[in-house]
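User: Could you check the structure of this?
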Amino acid sequence: MRLNDIGRRAQVAWEALPKRFADITLDAFTVMPDHIHGIIVVGAQFIAPNHPTLAQKGAMNRAPTLGEIVRTYKAVATHLIRRTENSRFAWQRNYYEHVIRDDHSLEHIRDYIVNNPARWAEDEENPEYQHRQKSSANHG
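Assistant: Sure, the predicted structure tokens are below.
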């Protein structure tokens, strides 16, 4: 799949996320014609406070929530994309998430993301696929 201007800007916004959120790591990512897939590793490290009052209470470096990260991604990507000819670009209201709990699941999801563009021709959301289905039903 070759990205158009919108896809390239969506990718630029993705790659910029670690500059905005120091406690995240980006993993597999792909831009599809009508959606994106990406893996974000979110984590916080314990910080030993050196201020006496905080030392008594303990302190934790708060990791950003997935919601904060996705909201930021969508805002930055929208800003970049609307600078193209597509001034009315908008994302769907929400997003789908899945918590990856083990290495086997991680590898399976990475594989899905990396190979998803090759499966677009047979995706039910692909308008060309829908057109082929209707044509074959009318001629069958």
